[in-house]
Amino acid sequence: MLGGIQRPEYGGQVMGRCAAALAICSAAMVTIGSAAPVSSATQNATTGPSKRIMVLHSFGRDFKPWDEYARTIRAELERQSRWPLDITDHSLLTARSSHEDEAPFVEYLRALHAKSPLDLIVSIGAPAAAFVQRHRADLFASTPMVFTAVEERRVQSSLLTPSDAVVAVRIDYLGAFKNILRVLPDTRKVVVIVGTSPIEQFWRAEIGRQVQPLADRVTFAWTNALSFEEILKQAAALPPHTAIFWELMLVDAAGVVHEGNTALARLHAVSKAPIFSYDESFFGGEIVGGPMHSVVEGSRLTAAVALRILGGEKAGDIKIAPLEFAAPKFDWRELKRWSISESRLPAGSIVQFREPTAWEQYRLQILAIAAALLLQSLLIVWFVHEHRRRRIAEAESLQRVNELARMNRFATAGQLAASIAHEIRQPLSAVVAAATAGLNWLKRPAPDLAEARFAMEKAVEESHHADDVIKGVRAMFRKETQERRQVDLNEVIEQIFAIAAGPIKSNDILLEAHLAKDAPPVVTGDPIQLQQVILNLVMNAVEAMRESPNGARVLRIETEAASDGTALIRVRDSGPSVDPKVADQMFEPFFTTKSGGMGMGLSICKTIIEAHGGLLTATPNNPRGMEFQIVLPAERH
Q: Which residues contact 457 (CB under 8 A, 6 or more apart)?
């Protein structure tokens, strides 16, 4: 069998055997590489004729750990070379079994390169190295060769020629197993994954011999007599305090060949124990880690040696000490999976694949959010402080407005003093007259009780009239408590009629009152302040018409409960015409058109109405006079 294909019998002639070997190797999927592609950057940097290199793979191009070395060596050669490179690849399928006949493959390689000599041969892995050493005399005897990715014990020093250079590794299995016991001190059993190919059988014996010092501490189990499916079943049922050491799984006991990383991935998926290994090519998903050989370091050194040989240096003169384990390397994900504390790792260990913390992953976002929250907190504190200051300022402002309004009412009282006295004197005189008449009717010999009763009722009516005038005046000059209640605007205006009746009559002003009787407008507010605003507007209208001798003097006051939920009060006079620009400035503080005015009355009125959530506007009438309109939020009935 060669690569799983039945080998036919060969004739005695060399050419016939070569042709048959070519057919068999092709059928057995022996990889024949073509010239390696060279990047444009490499072509620009290289000079001279191309160098022909043959890479000989153990088992095949996709078998670990050698596939990682092959890829990295090729990349390093193309990166470091100053010549164009023509690289071909061949795979040694005969390494899968000790019963394979290697002669056809030897003859095939000799025939293939008979007319196109090679500049260098690179053998990757121990099977390829052993194959070359067995057939060195018959196969490219003078061609320089580099043995790489091979353990020093697998190289026969006595068979090395002056054309051979070795980049070997030294596997410290005892150190690898001690690492397992260091990170998992409770381990009682180690399962060594190893197959049945010749190289795997060699290492099964070597490992068993090298770990004898640990026999009194742990028990070792071997898988070379099991199929891989049986290995998976056992791995899924392993007891606690067990570890797995992945040596190689190239060919299992059932004869199944395992390429790539599939076998290790399947084992990892079902395993009840952590997996360790000796080579970095297995690291990066399934292996916990530890001291391992560096693929990158070995590949760079191999490429450097190969280029020295291509540059003319004699291969046998290049002596490279076997590469030891690199610094311990661990997979953070596997450490977490098996609850292995990082404090147990050897000094100088490198932990990779660590999942970044929220701080590491979103540092800028967290800082931005923190800054935004801090700024927002500062703004909130500042807003609260400013809100408190504003409330204090508004309270002080309202207090000052109330004081100004009260002073304004006292000033208005001075103007209305004579009218108020007259309004009070009239009902009092009527009371006296009615009471005297009633007494006279009672003094008669035959008292006329009906007339006396009528006189008394008239006296009571007039006394109530006087009382209303006095109450209105007292309310006007009482200090506000700033407590708001429901206010019937019609009642407020009727009180104002009583207070301002004197000036209205004395100036021959016709009063037209159109108060909404069916649905009287009711608002929530301070009745004293609302009374003051309306009285100010009435007195301003009286004064304006007093200074306008021409035409009829008419004062019209209207109330209305609007459909939009507001209460309207209109005060319209027939005074002199007003420039619209002057009307726009009427509510500004200290603006006045009166010779002796202070210009605060309308400003105070506007402030009071706005404090009640309303609006006070002034509009010139056509052809003369002014109309003031108050809009207030009305109470719902």
A: none
Q: What angle do CA 78, 82, 88 make, to 5 degrees?
A: 45
Which tokens belong to 350?
Answer: 């490198």
pLDDT of residue 22: 38
What tokens does 463 get?
């006394």
347 exposed, middle or buried (CB, 10 Å; 0-12, 13-18, 19+)? exposed
- Tokens 């035959």 locate to 446
CATH architecture of 173-291+326-355: 3-Layer(aba) Sandwich (3.40)
Distances (CA, A) of 184 to 177, 232, 244, 332, 341: 10, 22, 12, 15, 9
Is residue 353 scored above 70 in pLDDT? yes
Q: List pLDDT tens digits, range 93-105.
A: 877 776 678 888 8
479 pLDDT higher than 60: no
Q: Is domain 14-169 in CATH 3.50.50.60, yes or no?
A: no
CA atoms within 13 A on the CB side of 484: 11
Q: At 506, is the secondary structure helix, strand, or coil? A: helix
Please determine whether the domains at 14-169 and 484-637 fall in the same fold group of CATH: no
Are β-strands 510-514 and 120-124 bridged in parallel, bridged antiparallel, or unpaired? unpaired
**Structure confidence at residue 401 (pLDDT):** 67
Would the pLDDT of 65 be above 70?
yes
Tens of pLDDT, residues 385-407: 999 998 888 777 767 666 666 66
Q: Which of 337-346, 393-402, 518-527 has the lowest mean pLDDT?
A: 393-402
Percentage helix, strand, coil for the chain under 3-state DSSP, each rounded to 5: 50, 15, 35
**Residue 589 in 3-state DSSP?**
coil
Within 10 A of 19 (CB to CB), how many other CB atoms are there? Answer: 17
Contact (CB, 8 A) for 193 and 231: yes
Give the separation between CA 351 and CA 345, rounded to whole angstroms: 9
Whether the full predicted model's pTM is greater than 0.85, yes or no, is no
Q: Hey, where are the domains in the chain?
A: 14-169, 173-291+326-355, 366-479, 484-637
More confident residue, 278 or 578: 278
Closest residue by Cα to residue 140 from 127, 152, 131, 151 = 131
Give the up-direction half-sphere exposure of residue 470: CA atoms within 13 A in the CB hemisphere. 11
What is the C-alpha separation between 387 and 369, in angstroms, rounded?
Answer: 26
Cβ burial, residue 225 (10 Å; 0-12/13-18/19+): exposed
**Domain boundaries 484-637, corresponding CATH code:** 3.30.565.10
Structure tokens at 472: 């209105």
Q: Which of helix, strand or coil describes residue 268?
A: helix
